[in-house]
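User: I need a structural model of Pyridoxine/pyridoxamine 5'-phosphate oxidase from Rhodoplanes tepidamans for a docking pre-check later this week. Nothing fancy, just the predicted structure tokens so I can convert them on my end. Input:
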Amino acid sequence: MSDTRSIEHTSRLTTGDFTEADEPLALFAAWYEEARGSEPADPNAMAIATADAGGMPNVRMVLLKGFDERGFVFYTHQTSQKGQEIAANPSAAAVFHWKSLQRQVRLRGPVSQVPDEEADAYFDSRPRQSKIGAWASKQSSPLESRLAFEKSVAYYTAKYAIGTVPRPPTWVGYRLAPLSIEFWQDRPFRLHDRVVFKRERTIAPWTKFRLYP
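Assistant: Understood. Predicted structure tokens for Pyridoxine/pyridoxamine 5'-phosphate oxidase:
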């Protein structure tokens, strides 16, 4: 998997001509690169919406950790609420909102778990204290107090004081493989530009059409 910083672009699609793009990943990469230069914090922040087995939706912010032709990757615990919802209903929607550029991108599609070796490689790149935090946190579970969490951090800090910190078995990566990608550009008087790319399957070609604002 390519890291978001390693993707190369053959050309830039400017605000005026993005509706002429015929392939969504290159357009996303160009917009993402611009956001990295203009957003004050976390240009890779995206809202991820999932639903439980009963269809009740849930949404939260996560960080994009990589994207390529296979999809968009983020990490969490399998035992977290989002992990349990993905297990019950393996599909999701996501949105990036780059306020500095007055743009947003929406994604919808199936979600699958990334291979262990891919998750291991990303986990190894994290700061040591973040690795400790992954062990210390029972993500989304009730927490009796902040002190209890700090004790857990202290315990795993001591346990892994020497050597490498392994990846917790429940800390995994998920890949959203979009079947739909919508690009939205703000325009005066709410006369926005909206372009949608859709495909029936992840290996099918993209079709494109515009939407009314």
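Before docking, keep this in mind: The mean pLDDT is 91.
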